[in-house]
Amino acid sequence: MNIRQMWAAKLAGLSVPRSGGARGRSSASAITAARQAGGAHAGRGAFEGQVLGIDPSLRGTGLAVVEFRTGRMPLLLHCRTVTISPRVPMPEALATIHRAVSAALDGHEVQHVAVEQSIYVQNFQTAQILGAARGAAIAAAALRALPIFEYGPTRIKQAVVGTGRASKEQMQKMVMGLVGHGATLAPDEADAAGAAICHAFTYR
After folding, report:
1. Where are the domains of the chain?
2. Residue 48 annotated as binding?
3. In the CATH hierarchy, which top-level class contains the domain 46-202?
4. Residues noted as catalytic
C-alpha cells in the first residue's frame, strides 16, 4: 500500500497495513478517493493540530503551516519562501530567517515543528552555512518550547510521494494534491509542507 492509499484508508477509518496492498492507482484518483473518504471515523490515531514545516537554507528557507484534523485532508494555512539576497551578510540573513519562523509561529497555533535534515555535502563551508541556517530556524521554535522533529529528505519523499527518489516536481504536485492548494507551490515551500505531512502521518 503506497502513501496515497494509506491516506485514503486512514480517512475512511480503516486499518493501515505495513506491507502489501493494492497497486496501480494513479495519483489523481488516489487523492480524490482520499478526500471523498473523510468522515466521522477518520484519522484514528493520527496527529491532529498544526505543524510548521521548515526546509532550511541561508538564501531560500521554505516555511509551511499545515493543519491536520479528523475527517479531512491536510489544510495549508500558510507558506512562504524566505528569499535573501546574496549581498546580505550572513548574520543579517540568519536574523531574517529567525524572524520569519517567529512570525509564522506567532500567527498560528502550531503544536509541532518538522524540519528537513540537511543532505550530506562534501564542502565544509557549505555545511557550515546550512547548519547556521538550520540553527536560526530551530532556535525560533526552541525558544517557544515547541517539540521539534527532524526528517531526512528521502524519508519525506517516501512518506509523501511513495518513493524516496521522487523529483522536486513530483513533490510539488503531490503536496498540492494533498493539501488541495490551487496555486503552484515554490519548491522550498513544497518541501516544507512535505516535512509537515511526513511528521503528521508517521507521528505516534
Report:
1. 46-202
2. no
3. alpha beta
4. 55, 116, 188
